[in-house]
Amino acid sequence: MIKDILTARADFPILSQTVNDLPLVYLDNAATTQKPQSVIDAISRYYTTLNANIHRGNHTLAVYATQAYEGVRKKVAEYINAPSTNEIIFTRGTTESINLVAHSFGEAFVKPGDEILVSQLEHHSNYVPWLLMCKKRQATFRVVPFDENGELNLEIFKSMLNEKTRLVAVNHVSNSLGTVNPIRQIVQIAHAAGVPILVDAAQSIQHMPHNVQEIDADFYAFSGHKMYAPMGTGVLFGKETWLEKLPPYQAGGEMIDHVSPEEVTFNILPYKFEAGTPNVADVIGLGAAIDYINQFDFADLQAYEEELLNYGLSLLKDIEGLNIYGNPTHRSAIIPFNVDGIQHYDMGVLLDARGIAVRTGQHCTQPIMDALHISGTVRASLALYNTHEDLDALAQGIRRVIRMIRR
Amino acid sequence: MTEKATIKEIEQELIDDFNLLDNWEEKYEYLIELGQDMPRMDPTLKTDDRLVQGCQSSVWFDIHCQEGRLLFSADSDSVVVKGMVAVLNQTLNGQPAEDVLQANLDFFETLGLWRHISSQRSNGLTAMVGHLKQAAAECLDK
């Protein structure tokens, strides 16, 4: 049976508490989403009944824990329609997923004079790893600019691809502006030039259905904690053909096949990239989060969130002196704004005094702030449990802050 | 000229004032007023070398040492941070450098408001206090 989205809010215990003696209005979902009771219970149940180190133990708990952990790998593969569980690597989050590829891909394929192409819309986590890798390998780091609407110009992107380009790294949704990039088209353009592509799906994984085979990206990175799962969980999807060619990222237990003083051989995929004891409990929480999301119909969820976003945008546009950044054709769940004459920091602190949680600052996207010539923004970001009331409270709060400061 | 109140005495006055206010919003409102009422900083002093590092907003401090006392003017482009600056101005400006160095400023906790904002690394309260204490130490060395 399909679950009604309006019942979602009650599944998240944290949302019923008060903050600063006022009901919590949580609008910082692009930073992290809250967790439903079923995810919290799954972690608790794991430690209460199942905890054991996985893969190598032969006792009952170890076998069950391994089955549960590998069961989540299968669940993740199905969630994004990956052809094989060998292509699902568990990491600590999007940042680690991207660092893994930057390190291992760089080592295998990037030589002095080669080029890496990223977009100006990237979070630092899909910018700095490539920048550092380029410096280390004497490769050239190139950035595709965004236009006045906050969208990437695909013609410029196309023109920047050449025979030296080794990889493209781009996000599906900008964490700072909410721009939904035409990712299928971007992948096609990169592939037409013979260049593999990594997609940072951190801000899209919770808001829209994902089909890595249809999108055809070579690497796909996302975090659990932005999709109602625990912190410290993340996924790297990589096409098996690529992952087979990449050297390991970290070394240790689990990732080896045979070790002697003379030689080390590596384990098969996906274990080659999972050195050490993994975060089993939280991965099981990730599985519970996927089960939670799967109760909804994705079309319903998207329609609900889109209506909510448009409602919020229209409320905020009515506030005098309030500027919303970017005007992309497709925007997802993120409203970045400032009010004339009011520091984003002040807006954030004073909204918090009314129990409203938003994020302020640069959102780990200094290149975007530089391009917009601003020091930062206030960012309200949505999840499936948000309501019109949350956005009403935000709009009222902003008006109140304006009165407070402008007196 | 009347003897300047000690840091502890001024802290207590501020605690009493803030205690009169019912909720967080009123406390912030009062804090913003304190900032707005603070003596203006000469705009030509707002240079990059007077910026305090470690704040999400810009904060400028112009600090002098005169007869063993710390004298400063300051400003911020954030009204909330400017309020914090005003509290520092009330408590520490004109105090003996030795007292500034010794001040533990735990009254920030007692204000209630501060338990909340003093733990945020972004507002730079820790950075501002550190900056003033360093100036106080240099003042004592002279």
Any chance you could write out the topology, listing elements then pairs?
The complex is a heterodimer of chains A (about 400) and B (about 140).
Chain A: E1 18-19, E2 22-23, E3 25-26, H1 37-50, H2 60-79, E4 88-91, H3 94-109, E5 115-119, H4 128-137, E6 140-144, H5 154-160, E7 165-171, H6 183-192, E8 197-200, H7 212-215, E9 219-223, E10 234-238, H8 240-245, E11 256-259, E12 264-266, H9 280-294, H10 298-317, E13 322-324, E14 334-339, H11 344-352, E15 356-357, E16 359-361, H12 366-372, E17 377-381, H13 388-406
Parallel strand pairs in A: 3-15, 5-6, 5-7, 7-8, 8-9
Antiparallel strand pairs in A: 1-2, 4-10, 9-10, 11-12, 13-14, 14-17, 16-17
Helix pairs in contact in A: 1-9, 2-9, 3-4, 10-13
Chain B: H1 7-19, H2 24-37, E1 59-66, E2 69-76, H3 79-92, H4 97-102, H5 107-110, H6 113-117, H7 125-141
Antiparallel strand pairs in B: 1-2
In short:
The complex is a heterodimer of chains A (407) and B (142). Chain A is of the alpha/beta class and 407 residues long. Chain A contains 13 helices and 17 strands.
